[in-house]
Design goal:
This protein is an alpha/beta fold. It has 10 helices and 9 strands. The protein folds into 2 domains: about 70 residues, no CATH class; about 200 residues, 3-Layer(aba) Sandwich (Rossmann fold).
């Protein structure tokens, strides 16, 4: 949409919660060409944010009218949503792996398909330090109690913090080249009271020197520079540097594959999220970098979304 003013203001007599939900959800569905149920949820979320109530309050008080201040705050959010701004940025929050993460235009919006990478990662991390030596999947060069995980390009910290929360005995290092993104990640760690994550400014491995890890995970940029999806939906508003990776979308994955071995302990794993049609290419890049036991895991839609090797 262009930046022309959008006039969807209602008369004072039509500013009840029920009326706003009914009228504006239809408007939103038409303008954004989305389904009515998604539009309705969006409007409800914007109202919850504007008047600071929970969802059940909207259902139990449909007749309540918004006062002028509440209405203006809501309409400001609603107009931005009509222009396509992601609901996650408007609410400054997105749930991922059961946890609420603060997000901003400096970070990607965590997506459900990335939860598969968390699940695969957890399958390669012992649940307690006493299980380290007994694990069939993990070979450590020493007797240290702490299992060390590296999250490359952490963004808002969704991947690193989800892993750290599920494996409190692990030490997680989360890196990103964006200071703004790392600040959001640190805030999320503090809000969620997760203390076993260290955050570092680093362009992939550049600041890690001789540090070694028992597992490396990454959800790197993997979209080709000319991909039509870059002009559609939420990705129009997300940081381009966190989305695009060369002509075929694989430049960053190539770099990670060639450099990861230097920072992995013997027998340790590299796990990567990638595009819906890139699994075979990613496995090939891993094999070229002398990774063995390469594999790909399917998401709930049957799409190979995560690949790994050791």
């Amino acid at each position: 949409m262009d930046d022309a003013p959008l006039n969807f203001d209602l008369h004072n007599s039509e500013r009840s919660l029920g009326t706003l939900i009914n009228i504006h959800s239809k408007t939103l569905a038409k303008i954004l060409e989305t389904d009515s149920s998604s539009a309705r949820i969006d409007v409800q979320c914007l109202l919850q944010t504007a008047i600071q109530v929970n969802r059940s309050y909207l259902f139990s008080h449909p007749e309540q009218n918004l006062n002028d201040e509440q209405y203006e705050q809501y309409m400001s959010l609603f107009r931005r949503r009509l222009r396509g701004e992601p609901i996650a940025y408007l609410l400054a929050i997105r749930e991922f792996y059961g946890l609420p993460f603060k997000v901003s235009p400096a970070t990607l919006i965590p997506r459900p398909e990335t939860e598969l990478l968390v699940e695969v990662a957890l399958n390669h991390i012992p649940s307690t330090s006493s299980h380290i030596e007994a694990s069939e999947k993990i070979v450590l060069p020493n007797k240290e109690d702490k299992f060390r995980v590296l999250d490359l390009g952490t963004g808002c910290g969704a991947l690193a913090l989800s892993i750290a929360r599920a494996r409190p005995n692990a030490e997680v290092v989360a890196v990103d080249s964006s200071p703004d993104a790392l600040e959001i990640a640190r805030e999320n760690a503090q809000r969620l009271n997760i203390n076993n994550v260290q955050f570092l400014i680093s362009d992939w491995f550049s600041a890690l020197q001789d540090k070694h890890f028992d597992l490396i995970v990454a959800n790197p940029p993997y979209i080709a520079i000319n991909d039509v999806h870059l002009s559609q939906g939420d990705v129009r508003f997300e940081p381009r540097c966190a989305l695009v990776s060369g002509g075929d979308g694989l430049d960053d994955i190539r770099h990670i594959c060639t450099q990861a071995k230097v920072h992995l302990n013997p027998g340790s794993w590299l796990l990567l999220e990638h595009g819906y049609n890139q699994a075979s290419q990613v496995r090939s890049l891993m094999q070229q970098a002398e990774f063995s036991n390469t594999f790909s895991e399917q998401d709930l839609s049957g799409i190979e979304r995560v690949s790994g090797g050791r």
